[in-house]
Design a protein that fits this description.
Largest sheet: 6 strands, mixed
Distance between the termini: 32 Å
Structural class: alpha/beta
Bound molecules: adenosine-5'-diphosphate, magnesium ion
Radius of gyration: 18 Å
Strand order of the largest sheet: 6-7-8-3-9-10
Shape: globular
Oligomer: single chain
Length: 251
């Protein structure tokens, strides 16, 4: 069913999306719908196009063809910063926190009013910002560490801090690319809980290949392969799909 040209209740409606790099289609006529309050997990073998899909949604890469609508607004021609302003947050695989600043400062500078570090130095801390920092710090489990220098956090805590920095902007769509890479077992469990907390009231897309983790968080799973969608549904359904088994055994 195509919704081209019509309004929908989806947070994100991607239709017939393609991108080619030197003739190679990394995303190939892909159609995907994400609900407003859902946590969608995207899995698939290396090179399936998962990261490229996020690049297309956040505007880092331009689509060759097709449509990406966020709350019914066409995004494909909007630059990256305009998509951020509309409520799209994306976490990359390597964290980009300010190591020399405290956890508190990292969150504070991410509040939409104080976008640059320099701007935030002169930025008076209002009650609204303080309140937001407190809420986010609790959501990411760092409320007891606000004064700590970010560089001293564990690898997992740095990842949560970066998620917190995105949450400061109250995104309506949050995208995380392999958020538990390099984390300890305990940190993985805490991240699963964190994701369940933060997907309330927003759409979240998580790319992950750790199946134990996917099982913990997933409601609906999308399997990508060669730039296309191979299967979609509950974890149980996709795990037992012969096409999916084939692709994973083939790797
Ligand atoms: P995944 O995240 O699923 O492992 P990627 O989206 O990173 O896969 O990559 C999909 C394919 O697109 C790969 O073959 C990759 O080499 C290619 N690719 C991704 N980005 C670019 C780019 N900017 N230029 C050329 N090829 C790219
Ligand atoms: Mg990737």
């Amino acid at each position: 069913m195509s919704t081209l040209g019509s309004n929908t209740d989806f947070a994100l409606a991607i239709e017939d999306l393609s991108v080619a790099f030197d003739g190679f289609k990394a995303i190939d006529a892909l159609t995907l719908y994400i609900d407003r309050n859902e946590l969608r997990v995207i899995i698939g073998p290396n090179g399936a196009g998962k990261t490229t899909l996020l690049d297309l949604i956040c505007g880092k890469t331009r689509a060759t063809e097709g449509s990406i609508k966020f709350k019914n607004e066409e995004l494909t021609r909007l630059p990256e910063h305009a998509r951020v302003r509309r409520g799209i947050g994306r976490k990359f695989q390597t964290p980009s926190i300010y190591e020399n600043l405290s956890v508190f400062k990292n969150l504070e500078v991410s509040y939409p009013l104080g976008r640059s570090v320099l701007g935030a130095m002169f930025f008076r801390c209002t009650d609204a910002v303080l309140a937001r920092v407190q809420v986010v710090a609790e959501e990411i489990g760092l409320a007891g560490m606000l004064e700590m220098e970010a560089g001293l956090l564990s690898h997992g805590q740095k990842q949560w801090l970066e998620i917190g920095m995105l949450l400061m902007q109250e995104p309506e769509l949050l995208m995380l690319d392999e958020p538990i890479a390099g984390m300890s077992a305990r940190e993985r469990d805490l991240t699963a809980e964190l994701l369940k907390r933060i997907c309330k009231g927003r759409a979240v897309i998580v790319i992950e290949h750790d199946m134990d983790f996917v099982e913990k968080i997933a409601d609906k799973v999308t399997v990508m392969h060669q730039g296309r969608i191979l299967a979609e549904g509950s974890m149980d359904k996709v795990q037992n799909d012969p096409k999916v088994i084939d692709v994973y055994l083939g790797h």
